[in-house]
Amino acid sequence: MRSASAGPEIERLITLLAKLPGLGPRSARRAALQLLGKRDVLMRPLADALADAADKIQACSTCGNLDVTDPCAVCAAPNRQDGAICVVETVGDLWALERAGAFKGRYHVLGGVLSALDGVRPEDLNIARLVERASEADVTEIVLALNATVDGQTTAHYLADKLEPCGVSVTSLARGVPVGGELDYLDDGTLAAAFRSRSSV
Q1: What is the per-residue pLDDT across 14-66, written as a single tens digit (0 to 9) for each?
Q2: Residue 109: strand pairing partners
Q3: Helical H runs in 79-145?
Q4: What does the alpha-carbon distance between residue 177 and residue 174 come to, in Å, rounded to a whole number?
Q5: Which of 24, 35, 98, 194 could cysteine-pair with 173, CB 3.0–4.6 Å?
Q6: Three-state SS for 137?
Q7: Chain centroid, CA 177 distance in Å
Q8: Under CATH, to which class is 66-200 assigned?
Q9: Closest CA relative to residue 158, chosen from 198, 124, 113
Q10: Which architecture, in CATH terms, is 8-56?
Q11: CB 145 within 8 A of CB 97
């Protein structure tokens, strides 16, 4: 609802902030007031950082990670293990696993999970590129590190079927990852233990 005391510029700022995850209208108003109250030390640097990110950051054509280079820093790193590819739902999940330091191979970001309710189909996800990568000679294992939700498990079973002709081992994280849990919210120890206990799909 439009405030009688706020001009259109402020309303636009609040509306855009409210589109961010975890920010409703009230939180967006508080954030807008905080930004406006600290223009020089917060708002202008944030605006510059957003513009810089919009101009320079891109999706890696190999794995789907976000970086200023293509391939991204993870794909370009010479010390990663080429034989294993860890499949995640989002870039946030990739970052969570990197923070935990539990995986030293390569990554693949699907860009979501299959969902009949949300109308997400296999062609909407980065699955074809995953099958291509799994068919490469040096790849021996695909780790499905998808969130332990109904849609995540449905996607994992679909991927296991699609990857079967590639002749690679398809594993998933151990069930130490709680059902309904999301990787980005798990602590590093839980993620590391789940990787050590992964099993065949």
Answers
A1: 999 999 999 999 999 999 999 999 999 999 999 999 999 999 999 999 999 99
A2: 88
A3: 91-100, 127-134
A4: 7
A5: 194
A6: coil
A7: 17
A8: alpha beta
A9: 113
A10: Orthogonal Bundle (1.10)
A11: yes
pLDDT tens for residues 73-101?
999 999 999 999 999 999 999 999 999 89
Largest CA distance in the chain: 64
* pTM strictly above 0.90: no
**Is residue 93 left, alpha or beta, with left meaning phi > 0 and alpha meaning psi from -120 to 50?**
alpha
CA-based Rg of the chain, rounded to a whole angstrom? 20
Write out the two tokens for 25.
Answer: 């209208």
d(CA 115, CA 47): 35
* Bridge-based pairing state of the strands 84-88 and 141-144: parallel
Within 8 A by CB and 6+ apart from 4, the residues are none
Q: Which residues in the chain belong to E strands, given as ranges?
A: 58-59, 66-67, 84-88, 106-109, 141-144, 169-172, 199-200
